[in-house]
Amino acid sequence: MEKTVCELFAGVGGFRLGLERASKDWKTVWFSQWEPSKKVQWAHECYVSHWGDIDENTGKDIGEVNKSQIPNHNLLVGGFPCQDYSVARPLPGSNGLEGKKGVLWWQIRDILQKKKAPFALFENVDRLLKSPASQRGRDFGVILACLASLEYSVEWRVINAAEYGASQRRRRIFIFAYKDSTKYGKTMSKKKAVEIVSTDGFFAKTFPIEKIYDVIEGELDYKDISTVSDKFQFPFENAGYMHKGKVFTKKVIPIIEDAIPLKNLLERDVDEKYFLNKDIDRWEYLKGAKKVKRTSKTGHEYIFSEGPIAFPDDIEMPARTMLTSESSLNRSTHVIRDPQNGRLRILTPLEAERIQGFGDNWTDMSMPEKFRYFCMGNALVVPMVTKMGKTLNIIFENE
Length: 399
Fold this sequence. Notes:
28% of the residues lie in helices and 19% in strands. By secondary structure, it is an alpha+beta fold. The strands form 4 sheets. Strands 2-1-3-6-8-7-10-11-9 form a 9-stranded mixed sheet, sandwiched between helices. A two-stranded antiparallel sheet has the order 4-5. A two-stranded antiparallel ribbon has the order 12-13. The longest helix is centred in the C-terminal third of the chain and has 17 residues. The N and C termini lie close together (6 Å).
């Protein structure tokens, strides 16, 4: 099978870079990257600076793109935001479904429906499995039901990148979907769910785990997605498999690889502007444990509490999860003690790129520094994609 890819919500190209590191045979036939409310589309410009553009639609809102104009592809990839996936019937008695405006999952669903890619690989935050709090598992259930209705089976895993050799303790869910009609789909349908989750499936082969012996089972009515939206709840765990609406899930334990410590990624002779020469007390407060009395919108008083974050960060450890606010004066920004001079400083943009597994100065193309950090906070850990790409190589060759 030809290794053609369509990359949605492409950012600065983490999926593409990771796949191309796994094999030069991967060919991206189309991509989409558009950041709402941004005057300059820095991520799109960065992507184009590395690979060139494809057509006039790659840098516009995906909701405005005619899905039939997207080139055919065999693998659809993308990291989409965690949003409200509930659905409604647009008209009384209508069989159609309508998701909330701006929820990007429906753009993915529409592309799968139109282009019928045999394989898809998506990334999201791990809280997707338990959202919303009022109906745990509904959102992921809606996604699985959509995929089942389009004749896809699904495997998923929550991956902590540092547990599989990367330099960041970043937890994300990856979702691998495949048409039941593919050779891979037919092979998996003959296996037991416990075999797929523990040893034989896509994620089990890519990210080995300690063997498991049982799974939690459930079922969703994928022929009526509105019922899933209204009523479905399920205790999804960090690994699982879905086939024709039957759901199997289990908490799995990784076979841990040695991670890369932050100290291995640090620059030398860092510019003075990255050092903390003021606001040290403010940094200490933000990083420290606290209990603060607050009042809700309804007038209810409550105590907001949070535990401490290491200050400075331990450079013998992998980095914490990087957010889009990295480098600003806030609780989540990394602060390290520079090994050369012992002074406190934030990370440099190049160090942020290394933490995510990009090449040095990947975003250094006249982009303002705050957007370089923003792009890295939005990115995925490239080496994790490369690992998955190598497994995909085998699957595609067998097709």
